[in-house]
Amino acid sequence: MRCLRFAGVAAVVPWLCVLALAPVHAGSVPVRASLGLVVSQSDLASDVGFAVIKDGGNAIDAAVATAFALAVTHPTAGNIGGGGFLVYRPEHGEPVAYDFRETAPAGSHPEMWLKDGVYDKELHHNSHRAVGVPGSVAGLHLAWREHGSKPWADLVAPAIRLARDGFEVTHGLARSLAAQIPHFRKYPASLAQFTRAGDPYRAGDILRQPDLARSLERIAEQGPAGFYEGETALLLEKEMAAHGGLITRADLKAYVAKKRAVVRGTYRGYDVISMPPPSSGGIALVQMLNVLEGFDLAANGYGSAQNLHLIAETMRRAFADRARHLGDPDFAADLPAARLVAKDYAAELRRTIHPQRASRSEPTSFAWPAESQETTHLSVVDARRNAVALTTTLEAGYGSRIVAPGTGFLLNNEMGDFNAGPGLTDAEGLIGTAPNLAAPGKRMLSSMTPTILAKDGRLFMVTGSPGGRTIINTVLMTILNVVDFGMNAQEAVDGGRIHHQWLPDRINVERYGFSADTLAALRARGHTVNETGSQGVAEVIVLDPKTNLLEGGLDRRAPDGGASGK
Ligand code: GLY
Fold first, then answer.
1. Residue-wise pLDDT tens digits, 39-79
2. Which residues pair with residue 75 across a beta bridge?
3. 75 φ, ψ (degrees, to nearest 5)
4. DSSP per position, 329-370
5. Among 284, 230, 257, 272, which Cα is nearest to 473's?
6. Which of 321, 324, 322 is nearest to 468 (CA)?
7. 375 lines ligand 1 (CB under 6 A)
8. How far is 561 from 559, CA to CA, in rounded Å?
9. Which residues participate in catalysis according to the annotation?
10. Which residues contact 407 (CB under 8 A, 6 or more apart)?
11. Residue 265 CB–ligand 1 contact under 6 Å
C-alpha cells in the first residue's frame, strides 16, 4: 500500500518497499470542518474555543478563550503563571508574532544558581528562584487588544466557570496528578488544590479550583492589571519573599509582552511563518527546511532510511547553530538570524552532508542540559481562515509545582531554560555559552515553534507541539509529511518521529515509528540509533485548497485532546 501511495523509487524496486514501511495509518481520517476548527490537548478547552467561533468570534478570540480554558483543564502546561508565543496570520494582512515569554526578575544575574561557586541544579530548576515573571496574561491580552473582536471578559468567562464549577477528572489527568503528589507535598496550596485532602483525585471526580476562579475573575474584570498588580501581585510577592524567590511587585508591573516580526522562509513553494527569537524554533525550522529543499525526499520514499539519514544530518547542523548563536534578541546585538535562514547558507550546510554516511558532532565534551517534554500547543482557524498557532508552557509538567496561597495557579520554572552559568559547559550536560545567560529582564531561550504555512496567498497549514527541544523537529516532520508526502492532517500527526539535537550524537527514534530494517540501515550509515517513547503532541490543521474544508489532526500520543469544529 505504502509503495503505491508514495510512488517513486520504491515502486520500481520492490525491496525498497520494505524499508519504506512505517506505521502511519494511510487513510487515518482527520476531523473535517468548514466554519472553524480548534485543536488542543484538552477537548474541553477546544470546545470553549470553537463555541467562540460559532458565536461569531475570530481566531484570536478563540485562541485566547482556549488558552485560558487550558489553564484550568490542562494544568500540566496550560497556564496563566507561565509564558508562550502566538503566531497570527490573518487571511488578509500581515502575519505577526506575540512574545509572552517569561522574563528574569530584576534581581537575576548569570551566577544566580551557584552556591559557594558550585552549580546547584535544584535551585536552577526546582525552587522559587526557578520562577520567571509570567507572560501569558499580558501576551493574550496584547493579541486580543490588536485583533480580538469579542469582549475580553467573555473570553475569560468559560475558564472561570470551569474553575469555579469544576470539571470531570479524566483517567489521564487523574494519573498525571497522582504522580505529582510527592512534589505537591512541598507546597501546601498546591497539595490542597490538586488532591482531595492529600488523596489522589480519581477519574470521574469533579475538580473545582475556587482560588483560580477568583484570579481569573480579576483578569476578566481588570485585564492584565488584575494579574500584574493588586491582590494577585501581592500574593505572588509574599510567596517569593517567604521562600527565597526573586519576583517582586515591581517585576510584575514591569512585564511587557512584545509584538515581533515573524520569521519567514519558503519551502517548495509554501510560505513558512514562524516564531523569532527568543524562540530558537522558527530560525532552526526554516534553516532545516532550506537544507532539505535540496533533497528529493518524496522520491526517496516516506520513512526510508535515506530520508531519515538526511533529516537527522540536517537536524544535527541546525542544533549546533542553535547552541552557538541563539538567545534573547534584545540582549544580543550580533544574533545572526538573517544568515541562519538564508538559502545560500543552507546550500553550504547541505554540501557538508554525505549522502550515505553520518557525520560526527563536535565537540564531544558537550551535552545539552535536560529539558522538560511538557508545554502545550493549540491551533485555530476561523470562518474567514484567519489562523493562530499558539504554544505555551510552564517549562516542566506543572512547572515549579508552586501555587502561591490564594492564587490557585501554578508558577513556571522557566528560569531553568537559561544556561547554568558562565563557562559551565561540560560533559555532564551543563551549558554556559553567553547568549542565554540570565540577566534582569531577559527572556530565556525557547524551542517553542508555533508555525503557519501559506500557499499563493492563502492559508495552508497550522502546526505546533510540546516537547522541549524535540518541538522543532516534531514540527518539521509534520510539515514534511504534508508537503513532501501528501499526507492529510491526521496521517501527518500519526507518522513516526525522530530527533537529533547535535549532542549527544544520536538519533532518537520513536519506538514502533519505523521498521527494524530501517533502523538497521541507519546504523549501517554510522548513526547511533536510540529507541525512545513518544515524541511531542502535535496539533495540526490543514486547509484543503480545493474544498476550503479544514482538516484537523489530533495527536493520540497524549490523552484528553480534542479537535472541535463544524
Ligand atoms: N520550556 C520549553 C521551551 O520553552 O521550549
1. 999 999 999 999 999 999 999 999 999 999 999 999 999 99
2. none
3. -65, -15
4. GGG-TT--HHHHT-HHHHHHHHHT--SSS----S-TT--PPP
5. 284
6. 322
7. yes
8. 6
9. 375
10. 81, 189, 211, 212, 215, 232, 235, 236
11. no
